[in-house]
Amino acid sequence: xxxxxxxxxxxxxxxxxxxxxxxxxxxxxxxxxxxxxxxxxxxxxxxxxxxxxxxxxxxxxxxxxxxxxxxxxxxxxxxxxxxxxxxxxxxxxxxxxxxxxxxxxxxxxxxxxxxxxxxxxxxxxxxxxxxxxxxxxxxxxxxxxxxxxxxxxxxxxxxxxxxxx
Length: 165
Fold this sequence. Notes:
The chain has helices spanning 5-16, 29-35, 49-58, 95-109; strands at residues 40-44, 66-71, 87-90, 122-125, 134-137, 144-146, 152-154.
């Protein structure tokens, strides 16, 4: 999908080390993403990226597709953050950076989810009943949890994440 032969070669070599087969979708990638199931996608960020990303994320079989975004600068990815690009690589590509990215994500590409840990995120929250700052896991926000001084109170923390729709 718009990759140079050298870029395709780098990705093919790195993915082959983990027994992952590659397929080139140079013509009609949107149609292919709607009809076929893929585990990963290497996509140069250009004027066609939005349509391809939308097709990938709205497809019933490709919603959880691992997306590698290739860009000139990381800021090029920001308009597409809504689509959840999993890995960002800056051009020019080098074999080492691609291999590191593939090594870090190959188990997700192979659907080996059980080997990944969930990392809890903790944010400071304030309550009207207890003005002292308390650290609360994000997963418990908007649900009752016990404050240090006793008592159970429902707390809601509005968090603004950048680039959300």
